[in-house]
Amino acid sequence: MGKTLFDKIWDAHVVSPVPGGMEVLYIDRHFIHEVTSPQAFDGLAERGLPVFRPAQTVATADHNVPTRDQHLPIREELSRFQVEKLTENCRKFGLELYGLGHPYQGIVHVIGPELGVTQPGMTIVCGDSHTSTHGAFGCIAFGIGTSQVEQVFATQCLLQSRPKRMRITVDGQLRPGVLSKDIILYIISRLTAGGGTGYFVEYAGSAIRSLSMEARMTICNMSIEMGARGGLIAPDQVTFDYLKGRKFSPQGADFDAATARWKTLFSDDDAVFDKEYNFDAADIEPMVTFGTNPGMGIKVTQSVPGAKPGENPATFGKALEYMGFESGESISGKKIQHVFIGSCTNSRIEDLRVVARFLKGKRKADHVTAMIVPGSQQVAAQAKEEGLAEIFQEAGFDFREPGCSACLGMNEDKIPQGEYCVSTSNRNFEGRQGPGARTILASPLTAAAAAVAGQVTDVRELMIA
Amino acid sequence: MEKFKAIKSSAVPLPAEDVDTDQIIPARFLKATTREGFGDNLFRDWRYNSDGTPKKDFILNNPVYAGDILVAGKNFGCGSSREHAAWALYDFGFRVVVSSFFADIFKGNALNNGLLPITVSPEILDEIFLAIESNPGAEFSVDLENQTLGLPVSGKKVSFDIDPYKKTCLLNGYDDLDYLLSLKDKIEQFERDRGVVI
């Protein structure tokens, strides 16, 4: 029987089985940031341990950094302390840090791929659930807790149970105005927020193959939002072209040798998956969420639904109450106050290009505050070079400095109580963007359209106009 | 990690489903650099109004409900990988969380911190909620050694699964790091065999 891509990579990283069924898994790359690492460093210090393989860890500051005036000291004391602690720990333990002010600084899941640190066939972890993003390169990449960050520091290994395998195939051609964010929001709406729990997902099919690397990252990024540990896509020419010439990619003859190896990374024809789903790309339309988890999504043309059979009516009702929505009402036309374009899901240069192309010659509605937070210093520089930043400013958008920002509202970028934000981020949980904030997840195009219309709107209507 | 001891306790019901770790501990409380004190902000925005006064209708503010066991709706702990969620539950005093299924990362984090996640069938979960509703003081028993959850009223003993290695860790207070460190030679051998550049 053939092997899945997932099993090929996993098997190549098993150091040793553990009696009872778990396995010791070797980790090739470890990303860290300021929020989930300090206790892990303290743990090492308490035991008097060094970082075992410092060259395999890359650090950046992203979750808790301001998106304005990054050249100045961080005003908020606890945030400043946390970021300083990361700097101090990286110095003490000999780790590479792309901190504030560094030209490579940015959201950890944006900088890993753009620097070529992320490569096919690797195992990659980070104390952040959206580590699944890196799976777009054909990696086993998943989020871990702080105790595990400490374990990877100390041994470059983790104890893991092998998850089950799921394949999600999307075939066919995407309609105009539909982006990869819509694909993944659609998939999660069909599988629910817990539908992938216990699984590692491989995304396949012609619609997935047709996507750029950045669009694939958006898909893999949100695997965790249906509960899957991670998601991956077999590497192909699109992947190799993306990686060629990047800072930490293999160079010259080494790149050719690596490519030959990477070409063996696919699921065999006779590989068996524990679960399979098939979707038709033509069924997918621009998506928005109406509730308080990413599984509560609908096409922008649909009305807010009622609880489905099997859904807990109390939990469902509470979500609608929090969002201020009623079953049966149209979501299109709902007045909004904020638009946030950013996060590890949608803050890459292609996202910004799509938004700029749409916004050129348009202006945001007066009552909307609109913010674009690039994923990294490199993305920000590129956006300026291409003249995108200027388009954003002319459209009345605030173009900020890189970081996680309003995706999780750890810094001062918060959405006020009770107000609506159409956001390109990944979570619409209660209070995610600030206490009482109401988040509507959408693609960068749908978010930009909402800013212009001042309400949730079908971007395709504005594209024709 | 402290050793997991047998528990006899009443339980706190939280029937909401898909409880995410942002609810368990909101991101704005993740600025601390130690593991202590997160219990004060456990379920912060469900537990307190914005002015800091307790929300009377939230279960943790109802003196009728108390105990070492939290019983929650399905898909508990979804979302962010923040281990602070497990720290907050433990710091507040919970030692066991019962649900019909847990998000993977949360489950791992709980086990790494001496907090036992017990998965039961949806039917048993309903029975537990009913038992607490009819008598909030009713005591449940948790016997990790024998992998059973004892229910009040019916006296039913429900078996639960746990990885044998993780069970040994919990019962003895071992953590994964001790185990991984003991494999240092194997790890180095693995690196040499596959030619990891050091």
Topology:
The complex is a heterodimer of chains A (465) and B (198).
Chain A: H1 5-11, E1 14-17, E2 23-26, E3 29-32, H2 38-47, E4 57-60, H3 77-93, E5 96-98, H4 108-114, E6 123-126, E7 140-143, H5 146-155, E8 157-160, E9 164-171, H6 180-191, E10 199-204, H7 206-209, H8 213-221, E11 230-232, H9 237-243, H10 253-262, E12 275-280, E13 287-289, E14 297-299, H11 313-323, E15 338-341, H12 349-359, E16 369-372, H13 377-385, H14 388-394, E17 398-399, E18 420-423, E19 438-441, H15 444-453, H16 459-464
Parallel strand pairs in A: 3-4, 3-6, 4-5, 6-7, 9-10, 9-12, 10-11, 15-16, 15-18, 16-17, 18-19
Antiparallel strand pairs in A: 1-2, 2-8, 13-14
Helix pairs in contact in A: 2-5, 6-8, 12-14, 12-15
Chain B: E1 7-9, E2 11-14, H1 21-24, H2 44-47, E3 69-72, H3 84-92, E4 96-99, H4 104-111, E5 116-119, H5 122-134, E6 140-143, E7 148-150, E8 157-159, H6 164-172, H7 176-181, H8 184-194
Parallel strand pairs in B: 2-3, 3-4, 4-5
Antiparallel strand pairs in B: 1-6, 6-7, 7-8
The end-to-end distance of chain A, rounded to whole angstroms, is 54 Å
In DSSP terms (H or I, runs of 4 or more residues), the helix count of chain A works out at 16
Strand elements of chain A, count: 19
Terminal Cα span of chain B: 32 Å
Share of helix among residues of chain B?
A: 25-40%
Biggest beta sheet summary of chain B: 4 strands, antiparallel
The most extensive contact between chains is: A-B, 74 and 58 residues
